[in-house]
Records
---
Amino acid sequence: MRSNNRESGIVFLKLFNRNSVAGYCGASFKRNCGLVLLGLTVTLLAACGSVRNRQPQLPSEVASLTVSLSPGSRWTASPFGPPPIGENVAPLGFATASARDLTGLQKVDAETAILAIDGNSDTVWTSNQPAPQWFSVLLDVLYRVDRIQMVITQAPAGPTSHELWLDNGSGSRTLFRRLTDVPTSDGQILNVELDPPQIVSEVFINTTKSPSWVAWREVKVFGQPVLDPVVAGSAPRLTLQPVALGLELPVRVTHAGDNSRRLFVAEKMGRIRIVRNGSVLTAPFLDITDRVRCCAHRGLIDMAFPPFYSEKNHFYVSYTNASGHTIISRFRTTENADRADPDSEEVLLTIEQPAEHHNGGSMAFGPRDGYLYISSGDGGSFSYPDNPALDTDTLLSKLLRIDVESGIEPYLVPESNPFIKAEGYRDEIWALGLRNPGKFAFDLATGDLFIP
């Protein structure tokens, strides 16, 4: 084939190998083949007038050929089979991505990630970091999605691997597709068909391999809004809206019960931030990054404010220390109600962990008894040879209950704990037989405790 570069535009010829990851079932396009039109991409420059009527002789291994015309300064997607069922709805949503700050610490990019969902492929989001890195598109409402397109920005060209995870509105992501060692280059479009269409609230892309820094020109999500059923007495439609920006790896949000209208957000790296009127205060409420080991299942895990906090001015934090163990500590506030004293720490309980997985560490005060409940995981079953869930002499794989407000140091075990007088049992155990009760919550009306 001959090609000449002219001002009139660029002709993109995309050649797709029959045995590529597109998974063709023959020479025809078939939607049920999953990911379509992904494969060997050859871009040839040619003037619009130089395309002759005669068809070139294509090699036998080429299954299909699609052509799209686009101005030389623009990136336009080639047509991929039938049109999608709806428009690109990604620009209506909210994007976040992985990144690192100037000191090299891991954080969440909620500012420049929007460049990859602004509908303009000339703007680029980059992590400025090698793989693995992730990119998330949180849609404004639920959509029936039948196509996702990811526009590559990459130098040099080379194989990349990606995982595509979808959330259907349940708050839990499910792996939908793996793209492994796909030959990619700058400007190429990774096109993923969802057949049948899926209900989607979030698209999460985890890039596990790339010859360059992980970046995207554009991430497009095509779909139609999921219409509410017209049923009398049906539950209201739930949507997500950002409340505050500028947080890094937030893992817990709560309030102090002091009518101050403040939200306290625990960041996994070891800080507690205050959100007031939708804005994150510059100075952290508590900063113990110097003693917190992060990340994976470790880090600053949780915080809990006792009843009548405004009168007591102390609170509780669970975190992973430098040795990898779970620490339950008490901290006190300063004269400034928006600042706590990191040097006021009183370590109340240490739960030794055999590994970095399933450490637990969630905390909450019982709404009826005022005791502190603490979750503890199994520490990673593959690292702990014997399942500790039913071991009565360990705090692993348990729900604990202690009285930290009795004035007795470091704490008092309530007489009503079920195993306090049982031989061979740790007194702190309130429930056993659990694997990894990462989070739990109380029904304030009944006092019932729920572990998801």
Note: DSSP finds one helix and 25 strands in the chain.
---
Amino acid sequence: MERKINDILILLCKGIANRKLYFSDHPKVRNYVGTFIAGVEEYFRLSGKDEFFIGIIDGSFIFNGRRLFGPTVVGKQLILFMDMLRCGGISFKSGVREEDIRRFMDLTESLRTPLKGLQEARELFRREGIESINLAVHYSDQPGVGPADRKRPWEGQEIGGFLQSPTMIYQALFDVVTQAHGDAALDREVDIDSARSVSEFMLRYTRTNFADVMQYIHYPDYESYTVGHSVRVASIAVFMGMRMNWKEEDILALGTAGILHDIGKSKIPGEILYKTDRLSPEEYNMIKDHPRVGAELLLAQRDVSPLDIAASWGHHIRFDGKGYPEKPGWAVRSPVISLLQICDVFEAMTAVRPYKQAMDPHSAFALMISDKNAFHPGLLGSFISMVGLYPPGTYVSLSDGRTGMVTEAGRALDRPKVRITAMADGTRIREQDQHVIDLGNISSQSLAIARLLLNYLPEGQPIPA
């Protein structure tokens, strides 16, 4: 039942995150609303209860006196909203209405300033016609809830098995970037500490599970690609830092800088940022100005590092000093920023965009190599050798018809290690029965990669056209 509670609450949190990116009637938002309601109704059926209550204390979700780690990681936006409402919990009645959930999600987007108290929040719900959702007083003195540990759950505490799901890892990163961009857009303080903390957790997880996270690199997040881009750039950068045996503190700083490097785009209007037609000169200049805007945003924040600012300002400056913004003669380019620039360009080329399809890694590397003096030559060579022509997390079809996910680059660029996930007839293989084939071994010489599956989602379903 605890896993069921986690799943239900995460659906709500992800629905809220999508509502901030899309309009209320968007199919993605409607799907999350419907799935959440179905989950709540199943809870009522299994438990025999007629109310689903979630408390919040010290920034954590509570259910029946127990802290819910997973939803707390992915649900920072809901926790912040609850704080603005001055409430200590939320309950959903049996028969909760779809229109109530959608109005609730609309409020998470429209409410800009904290309310004076719980009574004002309840009056707001009544004015909005929200009848099947109730707000509770502050949740405290519950059995099993002791003094709060001020450390974040991913900073050394026991996390159990919840975040061993790559979907939730990706969502946790996505949520932190979304919140940072949202706060910057509204001139609110950006939570640098959250970016730094989730960067640490990402480092710990990706030591052994990088491919599982990076399988989302081709996810078609058209309208939200700026957020997804930052998540994936940070993930690739952390992976490269680990492979090059950088110090852990340097890798953590690199991950945080990757998360925040495009924060200047939060000030660009959506109609320009997501435009599929050719940009006008004025619009293009606005896009080109985002590194400067981002650096100025970060300069105004507390606890920001010089690397965070340098990454935002310099990730579009080439190895030869060209690019934008114009580099002063006295500026010295850091190899860390040079690596981040490579990760940034590679991700942009190989991911779906509103105005283009994903490029295969081989073509991306060919363009990057042909662009003389654009990239640090030593770092670009290391990047290509460590990522390979079939980067970890991508899906491939083998010459015998089987499908698999690349887990690691091999000694030869075109012969990586592949985890077999489906048989030649398309039958999915259970995770516990999947095995890894090293195409670089002599025993695998009869096999080869037939093609890269750019339109293959982690769940194994093709991306709709």
Note: Confidence is low (pLDDT under 50) at residues 139-164, 458-465.
---
Amino acid sequence: GPAAALVVTLIYAMPPMARVTKNALDQVNSEIVELGKMVGCSTMQMLYRILLPSIRPRMMLGVNQVIMLTLNMVIIASMIGAGGLGYNVWQSLKQLRIGQGFEAGIAITLVAIILDRLSQKIATRRPVYHEQKTKFFQKNIYLIIIFLFIIITWLCGNWFSFFYNIPENMTVSSGRFWDGIIDYININYHGPIRLVRDFFYIYLLKPFKMFMISIPWFVVVLLVFTIGLRIQGFALGLKCSILVLFIAMSGFWEKAMISVYLIGTCVLLANLIGIPIGIIAASNDRVHRITQVIIDTFQTLPAFVYLIPVIMIFSVGDFSAMIAVVLYAVVPAIRYTDNGIRQVSSSYLEAAKSNGCTKFQILRRVQLPLSLPDIMLGVNQTLMMGLSMLIITALVGTRDLGQETLIALSKVDPGRGLTAGICVAFIAIIVDRLINAWSQKRKKELGLTTSIS
């Protein structure tokens, strides 16, 4: 029912907000903190009057991610009784009515874009100060007009159905248009598409898959322990290696390695594509605006919607799963890189220019090192979003932990499904801890950590 859908969506969409807020608080300028201490701010005053206002642009990035992830859950939520647009998409996909599924998916995307633009304007809005003698109606004229308009249209809706639902003979459908595009691609470009698919599978996916399956479990345990030891010390290496050992002892080792191979390939490609685009978007406002619209569309368009066209164009298999995961997971790499570079203080840029640095030197020596924590946060989110696609990719024929979860659901075997899900979570935790530890180490080297107490 709706209550269960609400809980599931909350659990899925909440972590990025917490992570972005923590990351932003860690990077507050030490001069701002010292100013708060000098004027005698208490801990609560420091937080609500100084720290939170100073990180509002970064926090709105987290709000944006919450909006996108929430809307992306509408189809899964519809499976447990939430209804809404997600139910329309789900029913269309079950009947392979691609055009109708796209229409509902585009409606979800437009809702996301509207909420995203409003949240961005709220983040950049500056308070407007009025004289004390200003009347209430003069100060809130636009709010009053909007409120009156809502009341009038609501009252009119009681007598005229047009104000509630547009008549069916006035609606426009684009379903046949999308169906025609898929048919055209399959008829005219089947040969080149098959050539690209076979090339990637034979020379990239299959060799990496065979390599990952052939690695003994104890080698992976030692490798993860060594990496953790080098980054942060014995404790991190021990924790991560214990999680790897659990996966090996669960009986899902081969499935786990297939999951690591698929998600690792997808995350690598997503970051190779997303980080350069984010760098370009950060240096060009026009590209930034265009990119924002595209990535909002990609992230909010439910994975189920573009998974079906991918299957119908590339057939089932690992390559189709890779395309779907890359399209879905490339968004954080672009968004966090763009935001991280834009958040670099102008004082650093002015210092680099005064020393005669070229644009490329400023990017390489100043902007990228200082924005590296944000970029690594994007890499982390790319990985998490890729792992969240495992069950969906199992629908196109992958034989990994996602397939085990799907089989457990179909056979009502909660123990098997829960164990496979825990293995997926442990893979995510291992990589998350290693990336965060390395990012914190890098922050200390760059002097970006701030003491708030």
Note: The chain has two domains: 1-126, 191-453.
---
Amino acid sequence: MTVAASPNHIADSVIRDFTSFTTQVRYTDVGDAAVSAAKRCLVDALGCALGAQETDVMRALRTVASTATSSRAATVFGTTIRTTPDLAAFVNGSAIRCLDFNDDYFGTDESNAKGDTGPHPSDNLGGVLAAAQVSGATGADALLGVIIAYEVCGQLVDEVVLRGNGWDHPTFHSIATSAAAARLLGLSRAQTADAIRIASVANICLFETRVGSISNWKGLAGPNGSRNGLFAAMLAEAGITGPEMAFEGARGFMRQLDHRFSLGPFGGKGRPFRVENTYFKHLPLRYELQLPVQLALKLREVVDPREIASLKVYLEHKSVASREAEPALWRPSGRETADHSGPYLIAAALVDGGITEATFEPGRYLDPKLLSVTDTIELIEDTTYTASFPWQMACRFEVRTEDGRSLTIRGENPKGHPQNPMSDAELTAKFLGQVEPRLGEDRARELLRALWSLEHESSLDRLFNLMTPGR
């Protein structure tokens, strides 16, 4: 077996910085704002997870999880299934991600990558909570794990141009979860470095997952990254080492991406943690399309969608697509494409007056009358919007009606953006709207109280029990 690098000297600066942060940060040092933000993320994520339990995808994944057992078992959300920690991480993370209603992070006005990619940081929570459960962590320990995962993931979002180089963001989740899991499992500095190294070199992912007619894997890729991050930490715990120069080596992460970078300042010592700038969703669809859908609902108040001759939608560069390049966005054939299709979602909001689960049923996204409105929509880049993205998200509609009228509507920062935040009360309402139908009002509210006071829980046992109907 290869001899591990010295625990006191880590040559790769990215591995060194992530390891130092992960092993040195303390719950007592992170501050009330970060703890509150971590609880907000858990409330949002577990509401999404429980709301997705009866989908076909989650039924299939629970079947897979139930085939495995472990002497170090973790629980599948909302069930009595006990499976391997990595499978629990995958299934639970997939439940959080399934309805595309969970949080996002694109960075701030200080981010060097300028919102190149926007992974869902709560995709990490399947792995974080599995590690917390099997390690016997307290609620405060689990919250610190959340803060670590969001900080590491956010650092990568802020500094790494990934999507622009043809790669996909689940690799960020592998790295972030490996760090958080290493901390929760009590790994040494040397083991933590190896966990991050293994997660980094083994999990580079392809952006093909998110183009064309999109498959189920779109919603599962991020949670699979978290699963692999937890597995990397478990390997390091057992003494397995990883390549020393995972990021900066001659064939490392930076070389493969053709992009060199260094990490920015970490949260702490008066600087906000990245979890404090989480982007929450008020609609179950791609984050960059939250604002266009809001504007469509506003437009519907003054224009009958049947009267629209053309609708030009001005956005930042990454949200623009043409019908010639991506025809599936104008004719979605499945939920995964529909909830990422700007033309379809704008048309659905105009015609139906909202976005609900019914929006993603075949009878809706194949409806010729709705698709006739989709055909009027063109997506166009406004370079000033690209320049201000992501800390200022902007959108403009220029409408021409069949009788020759013209109308312009503008908006900035959708509800849930860090500069237009959802309140605790709004996140509570979102949670209860998804969880009460499954658990009933009393149990849903008891679970909510446990989440809002998680730092006082001696373990996660009560949390997992409350998520299961009838327990």
Note: The radius of gyration is 22 Å.
